[in-house]
Amino acid sequence: MGGVQPTFNLQFRLENAYAWIYHSNEFVSPTMKKKIKSVILNENWNRLAYHYLSQAVVLLDIDESYYLVKSAFEAYKKNKEHDTFTLQFVALTAVNYLNCCYHQRLSKEYALLAIDFLKILPIDPVIGFYRIIGTYYEAIFNHEDKTRNMIIEILKKSDYYTLIQDTVEQN
Questions:
Q1: What element of type H or E holds 134?
Q2: Tens of pLDDT along 62-88?
């Protein structure tokens, strides 16, 4: 690439991948954080905005993520009509936010935002997996080992264990 600056989209993808791998926004530039916030805040809450937030939640400082996730959830609740993809992206936002809460060792109060939100979503097969993962995180934050272990076993049997493996502490 020589001296050419990567486009924002490419830079976003690179920093985002790095942040998810390391479960940290430590190496995200202040400029990137500012740009992400401005992009999200300038969007109306729609399918694309929810999808973008679901991916960007790891790049922001947790208080910023909390504020934006809360704003997204409130907007979702106000809008009574949602398509399947919007439902999936808003549920993914909740799950990814919970992953951030777990890896940053935050208090249960931060996690409750997403746990409680997932519970009010409609019973729909397209988000069933997200609801199960939400229950998994709820069990972690409530120290409910029986529920946590049950979900781990189900995910192992269905070959989805790798999706939560980074949250299973080795004894």
A1: helix 128-142
A2: 999 999 999 999 999 998 778 899 999
First to last CA, the chain: 45
Q: Is residue 74 within 8 Å of residue 116, measured between CB atoms?
A: no
Separation CA 61–CA 37 (nearest Å): 11
Residue 49 one-letter amino acid: A
| Tens digits of residue pLDDT in 19-46 | 888 888 888 888 888 888 888 876 688 8
Tell me whether residue 70 is exposed, middle or buried, using C-beta atoms within 10 angstroms of its C-beta: 0 to 12, 13 to 18, 19 or more.
middle
Both tokens assigned to 143: 């120290």
Which pair of tokens denotes residue 67? 């504020």
Whole-angstrom distance, CA of residue 110 vs CA of residue 114: 8
